[in-house]
Amino acid sequence: MPLQVLLVTLVFLALPGSLLVQFGLVWVLLMTLAVACGAVAFALLAWWNSSFGLRDDHLVVHSGLLRRSSREIPLSRLQAVDVVRPLLMQVLGLAELRVELAGGDSSEIRLRYLSWGRAERLRAALLAHAAGLAGSTPKAPEWPFFRLPFGLLLGALAFRLPVLGSVVLFVLLIAAGGAVVSSTGLFEAGVLGGAVPLLLGLMRGFLGPLMRYTDFYSSLSPDGLRLRYGIFQARMQTVPPGRVQAVRIVEPLLWRAMGVVRVEANVAGYVGERQMDSSTLLPVVPRRIAYLLVRELFAGADVSRTALHPAAGGRARDGDLGVDEQLFVARRGRVCRVTEIVPHTRTQSIRMTAGPVSRRRGVATVEADTPPGPIRAHASGREIAEARRIVEGMAAFGHAARHSNAGPERWATRSEPPPSAR
Fold first, then answer.
1. Smallest Cα–Cα separation from 173: which of 189, 195, 193?
2. Shortest CA distance to 257 belongs to which of 287, 292, 280, 289?
3. Distance CA 322, CA 325 (A)
4. CA distances for 370 relative to 246, 258, 415, angstroms
């Protein structure tokens, strides 16, 4: 609400700005105050007239002040439940519940200004209904998985080529500007024009992730993978079993010496900007812990058992590819090594593509399509006959895997435990 009020106030000042100047400073301040108070009143009335509840296996949400709307959503479409607490809400003891549903950009539901306890209870009830259990089921227990030390986060974020390069350039620009001032007595504006973008880039690439992932803690629970992180916007993210469609393990060049990686994922339900914002499962983690998480997410799949084979001609840039009964694994990159992992049960389609140049070389690219996200699992430079065999084999593996495993819906009522349960 504070951001909405601020936005309305800024728009009021920006649009008729030239006309407001004629009234004088006092009247401008009074009108701005009136607009801000009106925006606060409207937001409070809209919040007061909003309601929600659980009806059988449906979440019912009523909202709107001037235009009343009602939504009734089957919880079988639930993809993820997040509890978000901006700094002001933390001070007031409030929280916002964000419910992600299958269905595109308009599928997110936000329940704002709930008490912290009520948000926790509602989150547990929604996850229980989605799992096929009674809404009164107690909150599922959890087992600690990984807590990110602040020193490791700080060192890993600083020990990256873009950050180190920006720091070096910034220092050189400041030194050059100082030399010009000392020799001529004049300030060189070009120094400021180069230093400011570098400083903004450092804030985005270093301070942003540092504030976001401070106090990062992950745990495993029968209702999914739980992630807690953030200072100025504390967030608790719960990804139910089966919603992680693909995993990517990223190893920047300098991180390999430290033995740490970043784990990202395509999570069903998140779309657009929300997908990119929620794709990081572990921001900095030892390599061993990353592969342990993959086994937890994908029902015991062991990436180390998947044999990787180089591309035709042994070209390093095309990377390696491995396929077995459970997984599609592609690894590539020298400066930044990337390992993409897709279980056959999550693959939506398999493609073999070859452009005119590739056909002349006799090679093709194999792609494993998953729901939208940052991961586009593929392996290039495969001989056409080999690529065709891989596609046919993956189709057979996928059919067998989906035939023997049910979908993620109502996982708690099935005889087998969810992938992330211990």
1. 195
2. 287
3. 10
4. 7, 31, 27
Query: In sequence order, what are the residues at sequence separation of 6 or more whose Cβ sits closer than 8 angstroms to the Cβ of residue 157?
Result: 163, 206, 209, 210, 284
Two structure tokens written together for 9: 């106030």
Pair of tokens at residue 83: 């509890």
Q: Residue 239: which H helix or E strand, with range? A: strand 233-239
Q: In sequence order, what are the beta bridge partners of 236?
A: 83, 228
Q: Say yes or no: domain 243-406 is CATH 3.30.70.
A: no
- What is d(CA 320, CA 318) in angstroms, rounded to the nearest whole number? 7
* CATH tag, 53-146: 2.30.29.30
Q: Quickly count helices (H) and strands (E) in the chain.
A: 14, 20
Distances in whole angstroms, Cα of residue 110 to Cα of each of 82, 106, 163, 395: 10, 11, 35, 39
Task: Tell me the C-alpha distance between 224 and 127, whole Å.
Answer: 9
CA gyration radius for the chain? Answer: 26
- Cα gap 201→377, rounded to integer Å: 29
Half-sphere exposure of 416 (CA within 13 A, CB side): 12
Residue type (1 letter), 369: D
Specify whether the CB–CB gap between 217 and 148 falls below 8 A: yes
Digit-by-digit pLDDT tens for the chain (422 residues) are: 555 656 666 665 566 555 655 666 676 677 778 877 877 777 667 666 676 777 777 788 777 666 667 777 777 777 778 888 888 788 888 888 888 776 555 567 888 788 888 888 888 888 877 776 766 667 778 899 999 999 999 999 998 888 888 888 888 877 777 776 677 766 555 666 677 777 777 877 888 889 999 999 999 988 788 999 998 888 988 877 678 889 999 999 999 989 999 999 988 766 666 666 778 999 999 999 999 999 988 877 888 888 998 887 666 677 899 999 889 999 998 889 999 999 998 888 899 999 898 888 889 999 999 887 888 899 998 999 999 999 999 999 888 877 766 555 554 554 444 444 43
Sheet containing strand 78-86, edge to edge, reads 109-115, 94-101, 78-86, 233-239, 224-229, 217-221, 143-147
**b/e 99-111 (16+ beta carbons within 10 angstroms → b):** bbbbeeeebbbeb
DSSP string, 15-63: TTHHHHGGG-HHHHHHHHHHHHHHHHHHHHHHHHT-EEEEETTEEEEEE
> In angstroms, rounded to a whole number, what is the distance separating the alpha carbons of residues 280 and 317?
25
